[in-house]
Design brief:
By secondary structure, the chain is of the alpha/beta class. It has three domains: about 5-85, Orthogonal Bundle (Arc Repressor Mutant, subunit A); about 95-170 and about 275-300, 3-Layer(aba) Sandwich (D-Maltodextrin-Binding Protein, domain 2), CATH 3.40.190; about 175-270, D-Maltodextrin-Binding Protein, domain 2. About 40% of the residues lie in helices and about 20% in strands. It contains twelve helices and twelve strands. It has helices spanning about 5-15, 20-25, 30-45, 60-85, 100-105, 105-115, 130-135, 155-160, 215-220, 235-240, 250-255, 290-300, and strands spanning about 50, 55-60, 95-100, 120-125, 145, 165-175, 175-180, 200, 225-230, 250, 265, 275-280. The strands form four sheets. The chain has a five-stranded mixed beta sheet with strand order 4-3-5-12-6, sandwiched between helices. The protein has a three-stranded antiparallel beta sheet with strand order 10-7-11. The protein has a two-stranded antiparallel sheet with strand order 1-2. α1 (about 5-15) crosses α2 (about 20-25) and α1 crosses α4 (about 60-85). It is extended. Residues about 150-160 and about 205-210 have low confidence and may be disordered.
């Protein structure tokens, strides 16, 4: 019936309410759009708009089709955005993948220490850990800095017998962050102390809080029954804590960057370790610039 261009023109005319507005959005001439929409109506066999002075009034058929046209436009946008993602990254840049939380917390510390060196041409890509590993395997990234994927069973299976080199650059233990003064007069040294209060779960983290997953801790300590929100990143969880939504377990760097006027930080008796690593695909050649930065980050091990 209609091709994607004709659907796009209908969508914009409907959305803008006029040929003039649609022509402006699409950067085409008004006569061309008028001709196109008239042809579309003839092809469909029914009117899409009634002309009233300078306004276009959608017909019942147009109102029903607009929802489907919106879906088509969304899919086209998704296709184009995905195509952009697949474009080869610049060979002149160091393409560094990090998780959003590490980009906001640990990476500034690394770059501050590296500031005496040349930082031009750094291209940072912020994705979740699984996507970062996928891009490292297909060689579209030079370096990845993320929470250790070998801690979780998922990650260890993915890294076994792979060509990835790994160096631990930071070790730490998760801490609890809570709304300011919420636990002022309450115990706050063990997970069980947080079991009866609102809690924010971190999802989609490849590390899963160490060898023993946090989910198992939840089952044992009955915290799972009080999860009021979930976030796929540490920084997202800390933002919810600052809004007094509940408490959350986060890494030490995220805790350090929280607003101390809104958040309290507590060390927990249970061991909930994490590691941050730098990864590189050994089958991908390193430029001198990339090698220099990689070796610098390696030298920071246990100093961050």
């Amino acid at each position: 019936m209609l091709n994607s261009k004709q659907i796009e023109i209908f969508y914009h005319i409907y959305k803008e309410g006029s040929i003039t507005g649609a022509a402006r959005s699409l950067n085409v001439s008004q006569p061309a759009l008028s001709k196109s929409i008239s042809y579309t109506e003839r092809k469909l066999g029914f009117k899409l708009f009634n002309r009233d002075s300078k306004k276009l009034i959608p017909t019942d058929e147009a109102n029903e089709l607009y929802e489907y046209a919106s879906m088509v436009i969304f899919q086209l946008d998704s296709f184009n955005n995905k195509a952009k993602d697949l474009l080869p990254l610049s060979l002149n840049d160091i393409n560094i993948g990090t998780t959003p939380s590490i980009m906001q917390t640990l990476m500034p510390e690394i770059l501050k220490k590296y500031k005496s060196n040349d930082v031009n041409g750094f291209n940072f890509i912020n994705l979740n850990s699984n996507e970062l590993l996928s891009r490292l395997f297909n060689k579209s990234l030079d370096i990845v800095i993320c929470f250790d994927p070998a801690i979780s069973h998922r990650g260890s299976n993915q890294l076994e017998d792979s060509n990835l080199s790994k160096k631990v650059i930071h070790k730490g233990s998760h801490v609890m962050i809570s709304p300011k003064n919420f636990y002022k007069d309450k115990p706050h040294t063990e997970l069980i102390h947080f079991a009866n209060y609102p809690f924010i779960e971190i999802t989609n983290l490849i590390s899963f809080y160490g060898v023993k997953s946090l989910t198992e801790h939840f089952k044992e300590e009955s915290i799972g029954n009080n999860i009021v929100a979930k976030s796929s990143s540490y920084t997202g969880a800390s933002a919810l804590v600052e809004l007094s939504i509940g408490s959350a377990l986060v890494d030490e760097h995220t805790a350090k960057n929280c607003n101390k006027d809104k958040v309290d930080v507590f060390k927990i008796y249970e061991s909930l370790p994490y590691k941050i690593v730098i990864l590189q695909n050994q089958t991908k050649a390193m430029s001198d610039k990339t090698k220099k930065f990689y070796e610098f980050v390696e030298s920071l091990a246990n100093k961050l």
